[in-house]
Amino acid sequence: MKILVPVKRVVDYNIKPRVKADGSGVDTTGVKMSMNPFDEIAVEEAVRLREKGAASEVVVVSVGVQKAQDTLRTAMAMGADRAILVLSEESPEPLAVAKVLRKLVEKEEPGLVILGKQAIDDDMNATGQMLAGLLGWGQGTFASKVEIADGHARVSREIDGGTEEVSLTLPAIITADLRLNEPRYASLPNIMKAKKKPLETIEAAELGVDMKPRLSVVSVAEPSERKAGIKVGSVGELVEKLRNEAKVI
Amino acid sequence: MSEPVRESMEFDVVIVGGGPAGLAAAIRLRQLSPDLSVCLIEKGSEIGAHIVSGAVIEPRALAELIPDWKERGAPLNTPVTSEDMLYLTETGSLRVPLLDKVMPHMANHGNYIVSLGEVCRWLATQAEELGVEIYPGFAGADVIIERNRVVGVVTGDMGVTKEGTPGPNYQPGMELRARYTLFAEGCRGSLTKQVMAHYDLRKDVDPQTYGLGIKEVWEIPAEKHRPGLVQHSFGWPLDDSTYGGAWLYHFGENLVSYGFVVGLDYANTWLSPFEEMQRIKLHPAFRQHLEGGRRISYGARALSEGGLQAIPRLTFPGGALIGDSAGFLNVPKIKGTHTAMKSGMLAAESVVEAMKTDRVEPGAFTEKVRRSWLWPELRSARNIRPAFAHFGAKGGAVYAAIDAMLLRGRAPWTLHFKHEDSDTLKPASLSEKPFYPKPDGKLTFDRLSSVFLSATNHEEDQPVHLRLRNPSLWKPVNWDVFRAPESRYCPAGVYEAADEATNPHLQINAQNCVHCKTCDIKDPAQNIDWTTPEGGGGPNYPAGM
Fold it and tell me: Where is the ETF-QO/FixC ubiquinone-binding domain (chain B) (predicted)?
């Protein structure tokens, strides 16, 4: 079985994003970019399934700018076998990405697609679900555990107040949540090897997908700053301030 | 922990550190000899992640390395257009007249205000185009010395837990073996320290003296922005015996680089470089530029200020020291990028020659440095920084003017440094506490909100990379005598004296460390050993730094 893992290049999770002075978006010039952390978990899970013998090949794909090939190389250094880069404008919308992925699924015929549950830049949490809808496949979202047996995927889903077990007939879509696994380090020898693994580049237009954005951004603003707290000397003072200053009791 | 089984790889040359020196060396190696395998490792998560500099750079070495740098889009976009040197008093400032005559080192005509991080990222793309293999996120943890020859380095183990045992994601470091190894770790490199000690490279040279630079990048309203403006200051708030000053450069898209350097030979244990840096922004000469803007980045790094007198032996069997690992900074010019690059290029040339005859030591490097423009440049500048140490700030400035106008750098004498920076602190009881105003949250800030802007992160579950050689020394020396100077000189809030009243002890918040190396330099007991944490850790400076 082949597993397809879509990955996204996003602003690194350590970076405090900065809104552009004109409020049109987040400034990404010269900012460190890396793989969306949930996608790393997806890659790790796919590689583990292959290592366990449940899969034979892991193909990673990214839809984005040329630089996204660094992200694909990282995924291959973690163990993915080959990569496909679909060139498009920066940050295409989930529906466009899902349509690109549908085309690739038709071409590659994977038995399973594992994605991160959401990207940490736009927090859309939509691509996996949209792809499932477009393909008419079953989906196991927010996965914290995945087992493959007898043409089925048994997925533990993180839901409010507990977990839900679902069984999906393959082929299917799984989106990875935080607790699914802890991704490995890409070792230096594997980074070196990854440079030689195949990376195919295609234009989004070649797939016949309309990448034009359907959403428009009205404005982007930073959260308002919190006021500094104060130390109170006594319970009496606390009650007094809550009543008269904060006016919450 | 038992010795892990390490994989090993062989290269012709391994370079430790992806700053201007290491990248220039890598590029030169492949230009001269396109068949050489050249591997460069960098402990930052990407090239540029750990680079902090002013920076006004002189493009001389760059033009020698890549003559068509302009066409290739090197990010040198803001030429210096105007320049002031100010002597600050508490409320006013005096402009040094005839700057290019009195302080010719400071003349910046033809120079550019850059983000050195951006320049390094660009140099890395040039190096990769030439076939250099660059691996960021891997720290050099150890030097491999066999039969008294350096034969490579070991990268740090990944996934080691706090207790020092292998965790679930444990990944042993790798041996990178090389015929020649170049150390380009910048000031106070941790492997450079090992090599210097093993080969006694500092024999017969002055002790190295250092500075600590702390920097912020600001975005200011467009109507206030004057690209190309360079302003330096000395005087207030430092006393006459403390060397240091502030800079302010307008560059890029409404950006201002503001920063402060203090000589780490300062004596007052109460001095806090971070708070000095903050309060200078309140001076009218600086406030007027920054008011109405917002701070977008923060970083800090130590630099070598010893100059020519403190440059160690540059080569050893199997390799060489380049850039600020050796200490090529031109202090009165406050520039080290062009000298770092030049030293890297000359080392590359020497390595290629040594390789042809299979010589163990690329000894021609020293001779090449002496015959290049590097040496006369550093030689003519050699007395200025020590003059400040000997005669104070005002006396030093007068000396610098005399040196420039009458002696033209050719004084028949050489002034020396006599002390390590770790020896210069006076006990707390003999020092006066400076007054530091509380941060206002608009122009001035505290340490933690600053470190936050450096995007510093270390994997939480790993051994502390700041090691006390003898933990029991802290209380009688650092606390009883000096009242925990590390809690003040550390610009990242790594060191805290906890339970001061009852049971004073040192708390080390190693996760905050921005890799400036000041603790390794200034600790009065020389008890703190800065080692490399897990690769990829540390600050993630954005472009602009």
Answer: 210-303
- What lies within 8 Å, CB to CB, of B344 at 6+ separation is B20, B21, B22, B23, B24, B25, B26, B28, B182, B184, B322, B323
Tell me if B513 sits within 8 A of B492, measured CB to CB.
yes
Closest-CA residue to A194 (of A83, A54, A97): A83
Tell me if A47 sits within 8 A of A183, measured CB to CB.
Answer: no
Say whether residue A221 is in contact with chain B using an 8 A CB cutoff: no
Domain CATH for B521: 3.30.70.20
Pairwise CA distance, residues B111 & B113, whole Å: 7
Instruction: Answer yes or no: do B318 and B454 share one domain.
Output: no
Q: Is the peptide bond before B237 cis (omega within 30 degrees of 0)?
A: yes
User: How confident is the model over A138-151, as pLDDT tens digits?
Assistant: 999 999 999 999 99
Query: B145 to chain A, minimum CA–CA distance in Å?
Result: 21
Question: Shortest Cα distance from B46 to chain A (angstroms)?
Answer: 8
Which residues partner with B85 through β-bridges? B232
Tell me: the pLDDT tens digits for B144-188? 999 999 999 999 999 999 999 999 889 999 999 999 999 999 999
Of A75-79, B136-140, B348-352, B412-416, the one with minimum mean pLDDT is B412-416
Residue A182 near chain B (CB below 8 Å)? yes
Number of folded domains in chain B?
2
Q: What is the pLDDT of residues A179-192, one digit of tens each?
A: 999 999 999 999 99
Q: Closest approach of chain B CAs to the CA of A219, in angstroms? A: 20
Cis peptide bond prior to A171, omega within 30° of 0:
yes
CA neighbor of B85 nearest in space, from B59, B54, B52, B108: B108
Contact of B346 with B372, CB cutoff 8 Å: yes
Q: How far apart are CA B389 and CA B397, in angstroms?
A: 11
Q: Which of B121, B219, B540 sits opposite A12 (nearest CB)?
A: B540
CATH number of the domain to which B345 belongs? 3.50.50.60
The total number of residues written for chain B in this structure: 545
> Last residue of a domain, which of B360, B380, B400?
B380
Calculate the alpha carbon distances from B466 to A236, B22, B221, B518 in Å: 44, 25, 40, 11
Asked if B453 has any chain A CB less than 8 Å from its own CB, the reply is: yes
Active site residue B301: yes
> What is the span of the domain harbouring residue B510?
445-530
Closest listed residue to residue B527, CA positions, set B480, B463, B466: B466
Asked whether residue B404 carries a pLDDT value surpassing 90, the answer given is no
pTM of the model: 0.93
**CB contact B441 to A (< 8 Å):** yes
Quote the tokens at residue B35.
């068949």
In our burial notation (b when 16+ CB lie closer than 10 A, e otherwise), range B8-44 reads ebebbbbbbbbbbbbbbbbbbbbeebeebbbbbbbbb
Contact A16 B138 (CB under 8 A): no
Give just the sign of the alpha carbon dihedral B463, B467, B473, B478.
Answer: negative
B337 catalytic? Reply is: yes
Does residue B357 fall inside a structural domain? Answer: yes
pLDDT mean over B451-467: 94
CATH superfamily of A2-245: HUPs (3.40.50.620)
**Residue A232 near chain B (CB below 8 Å):** no
User: What distance in Å separates the CA atoms of residue B367 and residue B536, rounded to the nearest whole number?
Assistant: 36
| Helices B116-129 and B20-32, axial angle in degrees (round to 10) | 20
Burial (CB count <10 Å: 0-12, 13-18, 19+), residue B151? buried
Helix (H) or strand (E) run with residue B387 in it: helix B384-402
User: Environment class of residue B326 by beta-carbon count within 10 Å: exposed (0-12), middle (13-18) or buried (19+)?
Assistant: buried
Contacting residues of B for A29, CB less than 8 Å apart: 543
B-proximal residues of A, 4-33, CB under 8 Å: 12, 14-16, 18, 21, 29-32
Could you tell me if residue B455 is inside a domain? yes
